[in-house]
Design goal:
288 residues, alpha+beta, D-amino Acid Aminotransferase, Chain A, domain 1, D-amino Acid Aminotransferase, Chain A, domain 2, 2 domains, 6-stranded antiparallel β-sheet, 27% strand, globular
Length: 288
């Protein structure tokens, strides 16, 4: 039976008993980083690559590394075992810790680690993965280091609320030069001229393990090539297919953007990628 547990600084406890200081810098300034690890069949999916992402963010914002990757892996496994979660995700957050108010790094503070569980019924999105979703666009007004998973996510929050109010699945970010970057929590890709196109993996987009998996494993499996090149809406509207990919939506076909149709529907390539992804997950996280 699933138990709603959390982990705080290495200790697992019921969620209702967990607490962190109101003086934590993550609370005051968003001074921290995060990573989301999917859980399938009671197993973490691509845990080591996700932990590599987390540590890369920790290093870039200069938070001292209190725990090793090996310890964080053990924490994930322990949280799954004690909570009994079968499907969902583990949200890990590391802040610079508690200190007196002030923007500069405190001379003395201990980083704060929290890990929470989100139980997920992935079947809820299964119908959308077959029929596709509509999304909208908005200006990309985020900072210039999106490849660092910081806690400062207000632009994503506002953009996702805009999608909700528009009865859309998600919101796509577009920069001043008209180039599309990504959505609020997923990478964006299109199929055009028998190739998969997506924004370059740079400071303007988040690190995304699902995107990496498509590029390195799934696309080659179906004889497709991934081209990393910035493109605009004119390019997208001439594409045959479009889709979002990420730890939560997995591979989600996009059939309309700002009420404009993309191709003739879901298409043929996205279902192939979905099947390849499902097979990969089943190999990596087999049912117990």
């Amino acid at each position: 039976m699933y138990k709603n547990l959390v982990l705080v600084d290495g200790e697992i406890m019921p969620a209702e008993e967990a607490a962190v200081s109101v003086h934590d810098r993550g609370h005051q300034f968003g001074d921290g980083v995060f990573e989301i690890v999917p859980v399938y069949n009671g197993r973490c999916f691509a845990l080591l690559p996700h932990m590599d992402n987390l540590f890369e963010s920790v290093i870039k914002v200069k938070i001292p590394a209190v725990y090793t990757i090996e310890e964080l892996i053990e924490f994930h496994e322990a949280l799954i075992a004690e909570s009994g979660i079968e499907n969902g995700e583990i949200y890990t957050q590391i802040t610079r810790g508690t200190a007196d108010y002030g923007l500069a790094f405190p001379e003395m503070s201990v980083p704060q680690l929290t890990m929470t569980i989100v139980e997920t019924d992935r079947e809820v999105l299964s119908a959308k993965r077959e029929s596709g979703v509509n999304i909208i666009t908005t200006e990309d007004n985020r900072w210039q280091l999106c490849n660092v998973n910081t806690l400062n996510r207000l632009p994503e929050v506002l953009a996702r609320q805009k999608a909700r109010e528009s009865n859309a699945f998600d919101t796509l970010f577009i920069r001043e030069n008209g180039k599309i970057t990504e959505s609020t929590e997923s990478s964006f890709m299109v199929i055009k001229d028998e190739m998969i196109w997506t924004h370059p993996d740079n400071n303007l987009v988040h690190k995304n393990i699902t995107r990496r998996l498509i590029k390195e494993r799934l696309a080659p499996d179906i004889d497709m090539q991934v081209i990393e090149k910035a493109f605009d809406m004119e390019f997208v509207l001439k594409a045959e297919e479009a889709f979002l990919c990420g730890p939560r939506c997995e591979i989600m076909p996009v059939t309309k953007i700002d009420r404009k149709f993309i191709g003739s529907g879901v298409g043929k390539v996205v279902p192939q990628l979905q099947a390849a992804f499902k097979a990969f997950v089943e190999r990596e996280c087999p049912a117990k």
